[in-house]
Amino acid sequence: MAYAVARGVLRRTAKADASDTERATTLNAAAADPASLGLVLGVVAGGELLLELPPLRESWWAVVPLAALATRMAMTALWMSRVLPEIARLEGDPTPADERLASSLRYVLVALVPRYGVAVVVGFLLARETSGIGLAVALAAYVGALAVVSPLLVRLGQRTRVPTAGELERVRALSTRYRLGVDTVRIGAQGGAAMVSGVGRGSVVFVGERLLALPDDELAAVIAHEAAHRDHHHLAVRTATRLATTIVVLAVAVTVLDRLSGDTAAFLVGVLVALVAAPYAIRLVGGSVEVVQEHAADRAAAEQVGAEPLARALTAMTSGEAGVPAYGWLTERRLGHPSPVTRIARLGAAAS
Ligand SMILES: [Zn+2]
User: Fold this and answer.
1) Ligand 1 centre from 158 Cα, in Å?
2) In the beta sheet, which residues pair with residue 20?
3) pTM > 0.85
4) Residue 124 Cα to ligand 1 middle (Å)
5) What is the pLDDT of residues 296-312, one digit of tens each?
6) Which strand (E) or helix (H) includes residue 207?
7) Cα of 71 to ligand 1 centre, how many Å?
8) How far is the CA of 81 from the centre of ligand 1 (A)?
9) CA of 225 to the centre of ligand 1 (A)
10) Rounded to whole angstroms, how far apart are CA atoms 31 and 336?
């Protein structure tokens, strides 16, 4: 089934009238399709296990999320094995296919474990009939602990290294010159992206290896963008949004399914629709918040370092043979990141 989805998306992108970079982006954004499929199958498989093996029923709160995680990883692995070689070809990435598949799967697994961990914790507390307040306290503690260990998770998910003395000196000089408040970074071994992870003083800015080749003002603009995410507590807002949306969507799903419960067929269709639509809705709401945050971080970086160097850095980091990639409204929200063309256009509007 994952192969069929992969074949469909490969055929559609091959037909679309788009540049190689745009095709690669569309393929990346489509990774959510096999994920929802894996989730549906995982919940079904978990239910099946509970029916077949009654002793497991007491631990339903662990069985169902773990089955969902396992099938989701399996679907993602199958999907990636088909789609990653095409993305690598479009992006001109020379990394061997095996290595790319292994590092992508590791990245996905590290990102998913905490999310499924939430389901296990909530399920466990529900099974013990914990009160609403107890649930809220446990959720808050879980999210707080996750935020503290998140720089560690990033390092588990991808290869990173400490900066050399020269690199560190350069980052500190830029931080002083532009008042960025960044006294250390970690270098991400793969590629041209930067990110920030953690809370407050425990935050770590990760700078992709390729970014080190940028001129000083461009590198400073990129770091300023990440520092703005940190200073405006964007990660906390993201996590809170995801949790709140999840709770609202689940409440709506439970209410609707409750109404349908008299009619078995309608109920089962409802469950399937909810399993597919709920993650999609949560993703779109979260993605919309992230797009707004990206533009806000760009504005802050433009104020501190300049709109022009940031636009130059974006162009240098993202342009392929066909120029800077543009993608549509929906893709921006599915990826949780505005297209570089939109970002550069906004920066241009801010500068003039
Ligand atoms: Zn950003």
Assistant:
1) 18
2) none
3) no
4) 35
5) 999 999 999 999 999 99
6) strand 204-208
7) 31
8) 28
9) 6
10) 13
Q: What is the mean pLDDT of the chain?
A: 85
> CA–CA separation, 209 vs 167, rounded Å?
11
What percentage of the chain's residues is helix, strand, coil (to nearest 5)? 80, 5, 15
> Using one digit for the tens of pLDDT, what is the confidence trace for 229-248?
999 999 889 888 888 888 88
Query: What distance in angstroms lies between residue 297's CA and the mean position of ligand 1's atoms?
Result: 6
Listed by start position, the domains of the chain span 1-130
Q: Give me ligand 1 centre to Cα 229, in Å.
A: 7
Calculate how far, in angstroms, residue 142's C-alpha sits from the geometric centre of ligand 1: 24
| CA of 234 relative to ligand 1 center, distance in Å | 9
- Centre of ligand 1 to C-alpha 62, Å, is 34
Residues facing residue 323 across a β-bridge? 320
How far apart are the C-alpha atoms of 336 and 241, rounded to whole Å?
13
d(CA 143, CA 147): 6
* Burial category of 183 from C-beta neighbours within 10 Å (exposed 0-12, middle 13-18, buried 19 and up): exposed
Ligand 1 center–CA 26 separation, angstroms: 19
Question: Which three-class secondary structure state does DSSP give residue 336?
Answer: coil
SS3 category, 323: strand
How far is Cα 215 from Cα 66, in angstroms, rounded to an integer? Answer: 46
Nearest-angstrom CA–CA distance, 221 and 240: 27
Contact 147, 235 (CB under 8 A): yes
DSSP 65-107: HHHHHHHHHHHHHHHHHHHHHHHHHHHT--S-HHHHHHHHHHH
Instruction: For 3-50, write each residue's pLDDT tens digit.
Output: 777 888 788 777 767 777 777 777 777 777 777 777 778 888 888 888
